[in-house]
Amino acid sequence: MIVNDGLLQAEAVDFNRDVRPILSDHCFDCHGPDQAAVAADLRLDLEDSAMNVIEPGNAEASELVHRILSKDPDSQMPPPNSRRQLTETERNTLVKWIREGAEFAQHWSLVPPQHSAVPEVDADQWSRDPLDRFVLNRLRERGLSPAPRASAESLVRRITLDLTGLPPTAAEIDAFLKDDLDVAIEKLVNRLMQSYRYGEHMALPWLEAARYADTDGYQNDRYRYQHVWRDWVIEAYNQHMPYDQFVIEQLAGDLLPNATLRQQVATGFGRNHRINSEDGSIPEEWRTEYVADRVDTFGTIFLGLTVSCARCHDHKYDPITQREYYQLYAYFNNIAEWGVGPNNGNSPPFITVPKSWPNLSPSEDRMVTPAPVKLRRARAEAGNGLQRPQAGDPSTVMVMHELTEPRPTHVLQRGQYNMPDLSQPVTASIPESLASSTPGISPRDRLELARWLFHPNHPLTARVAVNRLWQQFFGAGLVETSDNLGSQGALPLHPELLDYLALEFTHSKWDIQAIQRRIIHSATYQQDSQVTANSLEIDPSNRLLSRGPRYRLPGFIVRDQAMLLSGLLVEQVGGPSTKPYMPPKIWSAISNNKYKQDKGGNLYRRSVYTYWRRTIPPPMMMNFNAAAREVCTVQTESTNTPLQALTLMNNKTFIECARFFAERILQNDGQSAPSMITHAFREATGRWPTEKESAVIINAHGRFLEHFSKAPQAAKQLLATGENQRDKSLPLVEHAAMTMTASLILNLDETISKE
Amino acid sequence: MLLGSLGLSTLLERDRFVQGEMNDHLGLADLPHRTPKIKRIIYLFQSGGPAQMDLYDYKPALRDRFGEEVPKSIYPDDRKTTMSSAQASFPVAPTAFKFSQYGEAGSWISELLPNIGSLADDLCIIRSMHTDAINHDPAITFQQTGSQVPGRPSIGSWVDYGLGSEAADLPAFVAMSSKGSAKQGQPLYDRLWGSGFLPSKHQGVKFRNQGAPVLDIDNPAGISRGLRRTMLDSLNTLNGLKHQQTGDPEIQTRIAQYELAFRMQMSVPDLLDFSDEPKHVLDLYGPDVKTQGKYAFNCLIARRLAEQGVRFIQLFHQGWDQHNNIPGQMPRQCRDTDQPTAALIKDLKQRGMLDETLIIWGGEFGRTIYSQGKLTPNNYGRDHHPSCFTMWMAGGGIKGGTNHGSTDDYSVNVATDGVSVHDLHATILHLLGIDHERFVYRFQGRDFRLTDVHGDVVHSILS
Lengths: 755, 463
Prior knowledge:
The complex is a heterodimer. Chain A is mostly helical. Chain A has helices at residues 15-26, 28-31, 47-50, 63-69, 88-99, 130-141, 152-164, 170-178, 181-193, 196-209, 227-238, 243-252, 261-266, 283-303, 322-331, 432-435, 446-452, 461-474, 495-507, 512-521, 533-538, 555-566, 619-623, 642-650, 652-666, 673-685, 691-710, 712-718, 732-747; strands spanning 350-352, 376-377, 387-388, 396-398, 409-412, 420-426, 551-552, 753-754. Chain A has a two-stranded antiparallel ribbon with strand order 1-4. The longest helix of chain A is centred in the middle third of the chain and has 21 residues, at 283-303. By secondary structure, chain B is of the alpha/beta class. Chain B has helices spanning 11-18, 52-55, 114-117, 136-145, 155-163, 225-246, 249-272, 279-285, 295-307, 326-350, 421-431; strands at residues 40-46, 99-102, 107-110, 123-130, 173-178, 205-207, 312-317, 357-362, 366-367, 384-385, 389-395, 402-404, 406-407, 414-416, 419-420, 441-443, 446-448. In chain B, strands 1, 4, 5, 6, 7, 8, 11, 12 and 15 form a 9-stranded mixed beta sheet that branches. The longest helix of chain B has 25 residues, at 326-350. At the A-B interface, strand 7, helix 23, helix 24, helix 27 and helix 28 of A face helix 6 and helix 7 of B.
């Protein structure tokens, strides 16, 4: 046996960091948690079983080593026809691990967060928060040093965008710059967290994760009325509701003792899944999908595990059996619902929301019992056998409500609704691999399940949540795969920092704002985002956090910012979803419904309120990588495409915004054009342009003026884009030219980026 | 919707290629697995579920069984949709249309499809298709993604992901839709050409069926191409200055994407400008060819896209969901589609492109032999039917003049050589040189395939 020692790393092998990913990726398919697929009765995810082929400390005597080094097709592992061949480095890592004693460890995320001392870093003039020392330590290990602190102008824009989804105004920037920077940041954060804009902005990722939408999502994609739930989320963030309460009320508000109507509304979370109304459907088939959707959403959003993989068979990589999947399923299988929708409105169970919402009187703020499902036959005379439930009108909201007589739950073979394994009835309980961290707890219903998530020893809840909070500020989580902290997920580059923050979150009594403040006040977050050659070389995607975050803003913010700059933004919290400009015939071109665009103020409301039709989602938002709201999504990509360019240059929304941005610029009486333009640049980017930049824009403006003075008809046409009438006192040609200049500014990479 | 593959020539993509990730232009490094038979696919999706026994699956003996009950042994109750399952009676409704034999293969084809019939020796007609779903949404989602439950990538985005694009200024995957003149169709959904869990740049680009085909492709009124150029020059300079300040490579990509957008503003409208098409070509496609939103118009666009190197072109034609009045609706639906479909094949053939193109015709399921609603000598309807339906393919790698598979005497069940949706997908990928079992994408730690864990290539229909 020849093992090339020369290739082995000097550092000791760490099972979770180095070995488990190899075993998981290359071996678990046949030697992992899926009992039905286990070959040769060997499981490499379990220490006891693995030791049948491993001699700790003795690679040469280990069958596993023989197999992975073998060239004999009959004994070689993985087998020659497998797509999962090992690389030389991977083989060497396994050999080295066995030589060093073949120590096993549980998958890192299934072990409760570990307290580790904050690193002592020599000559640390940089850290502002203990969390920075974890980062600095790692940077120094890799031969990097942190970037300098970002300018005050950058910071006020970065923080304001991060907390409200809107940029600071020139006056707000001026006020910020007057104070000592530390004081200014403190005051800024306090002010922004008290703004209603805070909740509107924080709600966005939660709405995507909770697959909130205004339609049912299948076939004719009928309308539903769930905006009251959306407003509950915004309000909860604005009230600074602790995360445990936020989650428990959404998962099981209906089961809380003396539940309020608000708590009942919160449970709309469990009803945001798609609902099928298609004629001819088999109700139980689709009800099964709804329950599965609740389980999968629960798994992704709270556990950060791909629980859904265990629906048809034992999980291939993580310790969740198929039986355990249906034990989780049992928590969500007892809702007083029907598998086919009413075809026009909310599906039961739903409740009527008092007209006074959200200002409920004490007597109104009490949970009410929703009417049970009442089935009717449609077109029975034509031989139609489908039964549909009653429909809830726009004054209702869908909620969770338990049946008095529980539905029996069985393991479904291959996940099929019509293949229950009657020999395997199951009752609600949590997977063994998670239960071991929280001994003595065995939740019996949704409420107890929700409370179990916040057991101080729970291995996942806090990690998964702080990882997403981090992602919101840095563009990527400490675990890059924020939807999967399981065996096949990415490993955290700063595991100690993740655990540190998770424990801080738990100890703060789940205070979301406290963690956000810690992040914002950290030196890590406040770094300049400039990319140096060295940091690009060693840390191309900024996973080591060697600089501040810089990335393109989400579509919601891109649009809202343009409306703010133009003065068109209409701020009104909550209410039914709005229907802003869409391309002509956006719905009727491919479906049987017509999009009826709103008039007046609703055209300019924040994008969090934009009507979300699942089968034809708003194209502008989709262009900028919004989640489709079909299923739970906690991570979206960020692309850079020509369609984004076309939207920003040509879309009616952005042209109208440019027109009114131009009006605001021109209404700055008594200023010269160059001065007006540099002010506009500052409004959009948060900083004054350099001389060079000014010259380019002023020159462009001159050419726009020249163009339109020769083509006043074109000026007129351009200024007629959008519904809002222009200020006719402004000279036509100047207005059109300034509209082009404003559009130029709105298209700048810097304007649409957070940096 | 992202014009993903449009990003292919950008710096970023090149960087990624250098880093060994992938290159859009070339697709995945290990693809194709073998020499492909075709370069592109034109998929003529007939949305709603065309009635196989009125078009291709000829059952002359049923004429004598008019009005008889379809035996329960043939059609058990539990496989009927709830739309007609409570009917008191399930009477046999033989087709109202005449059939004749076409080509050397003697393929039986309905009188409603004379133009397609005239090309019978180019077609491989598969009468033994079957699916798992009985309703539109799950069935069309299954056809498009290999799964009834939404969330998986569509077949076109798989192909885009695997093979990339040959078109410089156009997307690799274009979807178009048209409505039939006979009846309102079933709705379509953006996810039918969506990328699911694949990177969104592999999404199909939906060409709109009125106005500018790509959203916001036109400059707003009052902005000329020259003025746009002026604005772009300044924008590029400013973004370039920003790049000097921050060093973020994304800015260079953005500059390239704006330039690409500018080029598309020319190339996309050009596609719709048929002034360079000779009259005899326009005539071939029939009277609707110049009307945007019509099937004939889309067929000609498909050919023009194919010429530009677009890899996967999918037309969705609505209106086949004929629950009632088939004798009234079917002739109109066929009139809309028969001539343009045949024209597309002939046009590709005369340009020498048919051999490198796969054309697919078919819908999400078939229809019932029993009449939905009242059966009269002049009228009948048909409900959804998953257990058998007809599709056909033509072009590169396909054995023309083939009749594959058969159904029972009632056109209810597959009798021989059944082809599942997974088999169809496996076969399509095979023609592109892709082994469907080795073509995977890892999502949330698991390897996914278009064909899930199923699918066998139907070798007997391949040349």
